[in-house]
Amino acid sequence: MDSLDDLLDGVGKAVADGFPRIKLKFRPGWDLPMLSAVRKQHSQHPIHIDCNSGYRLSDLKLFQQADEFELAMYEQPLPHDDVVDHAELQRQVRTPVCLDESVYNVRQAELAIRLKSCRFVNIKPSRVGGVTNAIAIHDLCQAARIPCWIGGMLESAVGANLCVALAMLDNFTYPADIFPSSRFYREDIGTPPLELIRLPDGTPGVRATQQLPDPHPDRLRKLTVQQAVLETK
């Protein structure tokens, strides 16, 4: 958001609309004072911060101060390819550390679990190499009693429906980053698009389809930069 007032207004509307948790982007210059203002406005609502690898282990004191805000997690606080310093950070803070970019394949998940680098994992199928790897990482984390959640990477309805299916697995226990198509696209390349609905308890959700959406041929053709036909004899 362009200002703290804009942020508080946006968060307030989302909470009033029933969204079950707040995710805040957290970076140097937009950190503890911002977090304090949001927590003051929403003293009981689940909040977590996404640091996008913006800090180093030398910033330990800042995260120890952030422990006071009783957050759900610190998402990817340290470098994107690290699991060692994250393990040290997790040992010295109360708040769970969540790995995102650092878990980019099954092997990295195994290392993170062995080193105790985190207490949450954000799984993005397109980041970890597809659905098979996403399920494997989910299963590893479940065996280690590390809860997971589904992250989003601006997928079309085709990819987002895969994320919805994955989110049904038992160890995905934290609300996912899955949004209706209209959040990102004037016209989704996949059809039918994901739609915002209200669940029986009043919280927002998305309407997925039992059959995976297809790319719309005309829209796909319009956006195609290059194509090739492969033939076999």
From the spread of the alpha carbons, the general shape counts as: globular
Strand-residue proportion? 5-15%
CATH class: Alpha Beta
Helix-strand pattern, N to C? Answer: HEHEHEHEHEHHEHEEEEH
* Overall pLDDT metric: 94
Decide which structural class fits the backbone: alpha/beta
Report the C-alpha radius of gyration, rounded.
19 Å
Number of domains: 1
Per DSSP, the total helix count is 9
Number of strands: 10
Low-confidence stretches: none
Classified in CATH, the superfamily is Enolase-like C-terminal domain
Strands of the widest sheet, in order across it, are: 1-2-3-4-5-6
Oligomeric nature of the chains: single chain
CATH architecture: Alpha-Beta Barrel
Main beta sheet = 6 strands, parallel
CATH topology: TIM Barrel
Percent of residues in helices comes to 25-40%
Distance between the termini: 56 Å
Short structural summary:
With 233 residues, the chain is α/β, with parallel strands linked by helices. Helix content is 36%, strand content 14%.
Descriptive overview:
With 233 residues, this protein is of the alpha/beta class. It has a single domain (4-223), classed as Enolase-like C-terminal domain (TIM Barrel, Alpha-Beta Barrel). The chain contains nine helices and ten strands. The model has no long low-confidence stretch (mean pLDDT 94).
